[in-house]
């Protein structure tokens, strides 16, 4: 099994804050590798981070980290807002709140957001099992004591 790079978690935190969480789609590259996708990138040699996803209301994607041009870590994810949410303002408010939660990422669990984040009547929860070398989790957003408005499932690991 490959050894865990000591600075991988810190790089992931930086990369995620400098792409979707911090910049939304303003971090999108002009010519994505896959037609119809959004592609966000961050580089800090020897590492390079790439997040490619499709969709918006419901979306699927994959994040990769390369070290010296070799992919060493990856996470896939899928999720989105409940299908019955059609109101654009509600939709945008959920994703604005999500980005705020994702900015609170920590190097202890650098997958998505913190275990819990609360702001303006919304609650973000992230239940994760495992470590950076192999993990899976579920994140949800809800108003207090209500059914989730949004849910995402993710998993990933160190490649070998």
Strand order of the largest sheet: 1-2-3-4-8-7-6-5
Give the N-to-C terminal Cα separation: 6 Å
- What percent of the residues sit in helical stretches (DSSP H or I)? 10-25%
* Structural category: alpha+beta
Order of helices and strands: HHEEEEHEEEE
Topology, number of strands: 8
Mean pLDDT: 93
What summary fits the major beta sheet?
8 strands, antiparallel
Q: What are the low-pLDDT stretches, counting only 5+ consecutive residues below 50?
A: none
Strand content: 35-45%
Radius of gyration: 15 Å
| Inertia-based shape | globular
How many structurally independent domains? 1
**Helix segment tally:** 3
Description:
An eight-stranded antiparallel beta sheet has the order 1-2-3-4-8-7-6-5, covered by helices on one side. The chain has one domain. The model has no long low-confidence stretch (mean pLDDT 93). The chain has helices at residues 8-17, 20-23, 88-103; strands at residues 38-44, 47-55, 58-67, 70-81, 116-119, 122-131, 134-143, 150-158. Helix content is 19%, strand content 44%. It is built from three helices and eight strands.
